[in-house]
Design brief:
alpha/beta, TIM Barrel, 6-stranded parallel beta sheet, 3-stranded mixed beta sheet, 10 helices, signal, Polysaccharide deacetylase family protein, Polysacc_deacetylase_ArnD, hydrolase activity, acting on carbon-nitrogen (but not peptide) bonds
């Protein structure tokens, strides 16, 4: 019994020593930890901007009953937005796609068939994205440079495949949750409270209360001194970095302390569309 207790104490002491050595290594070699974290492929969620700039975006994957209404509201305030449209939606509503483009809004890619891209191979992802790009370009004459993966889902393979064809994956840092059919007042409060300089706001076309909420949101942010620009104008050109929260930074700027990226290889931020 005495021999067993002695062995147990020796084992415990050895384990503690190994743990202490590991902590010492991490503290004295943070670059190793940073290098491991840096391998995580992230899209752009928001942008470091000193000016009060904000981009509003709409995902279009189902009906188009309020598309013209959204165009009219945005025109009233002379604001240009970014619409991420699914290729199938382009097939169904080419006139809406043309109307968005003619009104000066960006028409960007939201995949061809709204598939879960993390379940596709690199080749399948590229084929899907390019098919949607072809459809949008055929209607608008402009080939998309930005894409929002369906469901807000991505992994390293998705992001790498997208960037390999010269496109930039875009997420959001302010979610209106309009797809939940929240009351207009609640949508307005969520968005106005959440916006910061460099924010990207997520809305959806064909959401029940978005046309009702949108004017109040625009007016409140304009009164706060915000300027609205399409996403292609708020994101930074190369060279840039992206911190662990998905904030895009100029390459020369040191990244601020940030919340670690999700531990899993797959990130899903948008349960609806």
């Amino acid at each position: 019994m005495r021999l067993f207790l002695l062995k147990r104490k020796m084992f415990t002491a050895a384990a503690c020593l190994l743990a202490a050595c590991a902590m010492f290594y991490i503290v004295n070699h943070p670059a190793v930890v940073g290098a491991a974290a840096a391998t995580r492929q992230l899209p752009i969620y928001c942008v470091q901007r000193d000016q009060k700039m904000v981009s509003i975006s709409f995902d279009a994957a189902w009906g188009n009953e309020d598309t013209q209404m959204l165009i009219d509201i945005l025109a009233k305030y002379n604001i240009k937005a970014t619409f991420f449209v699914v290729g199938d939606w382009v097939d169904k509503y080419p006139e809406s796609v043309k109307a968005l483009s003619d009104a000066g809004h960006e028409v960007m890619n939201h995949s061809n068939s709204h598939a879960h891209m993390s379940k596709l191979s690199r080749e399948e992802i590229i084929a899907d994205v390019e098919a949607c790009n072809d459809k949008i370009e055929a209607v608008t004459g402009v080939r998309p440079t930005l894409i929002r993966p369906p469901y807000g889902e991505y992994d390293d393979n998705v992001i790498s495949a997208i960037r390999s064809i010269g496109m930039e994956p875009i997420q959001w840092d302010v979610d209106s949750l309009d797809w939940k059919d929240l009351p207009a007042g609640e949508i307005t409060q969520r968005v106005v409270k959440g916006v910061q300089p460099g924010s990207i706001v997520l809305f959806h076309n064909a959401a029940l209360h978005t046309p009702e909420a949108l004017p109040g949101i625009l007016e409140a942010l304009l009164q706060e001194g915000y300027t609205f620009v399409p996403i292609s104008q708020i994101i930074l050109p190369q060279p840039y970095t992206i911190d662990h929260t998905g904030r895009q930074l100029p390459a020369a700027s040191p990244a601020p302390a940030a919340t670690p990226a999700p531990a899993s290889g797959l990130f899903s931020a948008q349960p609806a569309v």
